[in-house]
Specification:
Strands 1, 2, 3, 4, 5, 6, 7, 9, 10, 14 and 17 form an 11-stranded mixed sheet that branches. Strands 13-12-11-8-15-16 form a 6-stranded antiparallel sheet. By secondary structure, it is of the alpha+beta class. The protein has helices at residues 2-35, 40-64, 67-90, 94-118, 147-150, 153-159, 175-184, 196-209, 223-227, 268-273, 282-294, 354-363, 431-439; strands at residues 127-128, 135-139, 163-166, 189-193, 213-216, 245-255, 258-260, 263-267, 302-306, 309-314, 316-321, 344-349, 370-375, 377-381, 386-391, 394-399, 402-416. Strand 9 and strand 10 (309-314) form a beta hairpin. The protein folds into 3 domains: 7-118, no CATH class; 127-251, Rossmann fold (3-Layer(aba) Sandwich), CATH 3.40.50.10330; 263-409, Tumour Suppressor Smad4, CATH 2.60.200. It is globular. Helix 2 (40-64) crosses helix 12. It comes from Streptomyces bauhiniae. Keywords: Kinase, Membrane, Transferase, Transmembrane, Transmembrane helix. InterPro entries: ATP-NAD_kinase_N, Diacylglycerol_kinase_cat_dom, NAD/diacylglycerol_kinase_sf.
């Protein structure tokens, strides 16, 4: 007990020191610009801001327009950063810009580390799991470009005592029915080697019958597996759970009666994935459709009721089974640090012109065009009886209102003991919290730990 208290005390001291470093580095960046010879630092700041605004506006014209305007937007988006670099080089202010940029980078890094240590990430504690006696695994040989065959998953699973149901890509099967039949025949574990959409369907059957669920990371993106801390590079390691496993309980999302493990998308992305050409040419299809979806008069806009609060006229909505750390986490390898908070993450976007795109680029999550919040229930309407929806990447049409909710702790997930795990999340920089952490009273230095069911924010309120 004393050791734990000492560890927390030391972590608090380190967090306080890092917070002060972040504040000093930010002040240093500003001082460098203010004290640059001849006021040149102010020109650097103004040029950087102008370049950012032009880049965002050019990018908007590129994705939301066609023809000459699209070409002009591409030129502006490319010319803006190039022009900034040419300006600071030819004006002799490159050293000022470099020192200021380094200071801001140090401020950002130390600020995130300070907030990370002040609110340490506590991963969910697993419990010991007994070895399943009659495990049944459903495998899609096409998923992930053929990972099932490449990693010899069928033989490895059968060698460990599992019964494998291998799907036939030429004859699509009802995986929900297959899972139900497996449970009826005595299966005491269900597992899937496939994409997140297939994972969700079988997970719902496992949750309904209170049997453990095994995720095998043989899909293309494997977001659910990644957020469970599994090895996405070697799906065969997931099979170790059959002989040396431990169990956690996680939440399961529900969208109008259909389960989801990751995200439900409405609006622009959901419209794009409906196109038959999307799977073969994602970038080209998106660029062809986005002008009509973003800027055309009369295009569908979304309204949402978020725990009783109205979110109006959105171009895109993303509902996630548990929230991401920040909107930035949605790009690339974004993660959800917990899958057991009992909440939905909600992100709404409304950007209708180049000026609003520039404001979003400058202000980030504080821009009025971006809403980040959490909720327990979301109802989405779009002025039509049915609207397109992308559920874990699968294109569907659902009747309005489309209702999203979460079933806390509904799913028992069996995990291998030896797995990469989920790294501690890097929280976004919040300067008010950093100042409080650096110079506030001792009892206020450590932000309260997030509980399993924290009070959610209202739409429009920016979550830290």
């Amino acid at each position: 007990m004393g050791g734990a208290r000492t560890g927390r005390f030391r972590a608090g001291l380190v967090a306080r020191l890092l917070a002060r470093c972040a504040v000093v580095a930010a002040i240093g960046a500003a001082v460098v610009l203010l004290l640059a010879v001849g006021g040149g630092g102010l020109f650097v700041a103004l040029a950087a801001l102008t370049g950012l605004v032009l880049f965002a506006a050019g990018l908007w014209w590129f994705v939301a327009r066609r023809g000459v305007v699209r070409l002009l937007g591409a030129l502006v988006a490319v010319a803006a950063p190039v022009g900034f670099l040419v300006f600071i080089t030819r004006s002799g202010l490159w050293l000022v810009a470099l020192i200021s940029a380094v200071c801001w980078a140090v401020a950002g890094f130390t600020g995130r580390e300070a907030l990370r240590k002040a609110r340490p990430h506590r991963p969910q504690r697993p419990t010991r799991a007994r070895r399943p006696g009659r495990p049944v695994l459903i495998m899609n040989p096409k998923s992930g470009g053929g990972k099932v065959g490449r990693f010899d998953l069928v033989k490895r699973a059968e060698d460990l005592g599992a019964r494998v149901i291998l799907l036939d890509p030429s004859h699509p099967a009802d995986v929900t029915k297959l899972a139900e039949q497996a449970v009826a025949k005595g299966a005491d574990l269900l597992g899937v080697a496939g994409g997140d959409g297939t994972q969700a369907l079988v997970a719902a059957v496992a949750a309904e019958h209170h049997v453990p669920f095994l995720v095998i990371s043989a899909g293309t993106r494997n977001h659910f597996a990644m957020d469970l801390g599994l090895d996405r590079a070697d799906p065969a390691r997931c099979l170790d759970a059959l002989t040396d496993g431990e169990e956690v309980r996680v939440d399961l999302g529900d969208v109008s009666g259909r389960p989801f493990v990751n995200t439900v998308s409405f609006g622009v992305y959901a419209d794009i994935v409906q196109s038959p050409e999307y799977r073969d040419n994602k970038t080209g299809t998106a660029l062809n459709l986005m002008p009509d979806l973003l800027a055309r008069e009369g295009v569908r806009r979304l309204d949402a009721n978020v725990d009783g609060n109205r979110l109006a006229e959105q171009q895109a909505l993303l509902i996630s089974n548990n929230p991401y750390v920040s909107p930035d986490e949605l790009s690339g390898g974004g993660r959800r640090p917990r899958l057991d908070t009992g909440e939905l993450g909600v992100i709404g976007i409304r950007v209708e012109n180049a000026a609003q795109a520039a404001e979003l680029a400058v202000r980030g999550p504080q821009a009025p065009g971006l809403t980040v919040t959490t909720a327990h229930r979301v109802e989405v309407t779009g002025g039509e009886q049915q609207i397109p929806v992308a559920v874990d990447g699968e294109a569907l049409w659902l009747r309005t209102p489309v209702t999203c909710s979460v079933r806390p702790g509904a799913l028992r997930v069996l995990l291998p003991r030896d797995r990469p795990g989920v790294p501690a999340p890097a929280p976004p920089v919040d300067w008010r919290k950093l100042l409080d952490l650096a110079f506030g009273p001792a009892e206020r230095r450590t932000p309260p730990e997030r509980t399993a069911s924290p009070e959610h924010t209202a739409p429009g309120e920016k979550r830290a």
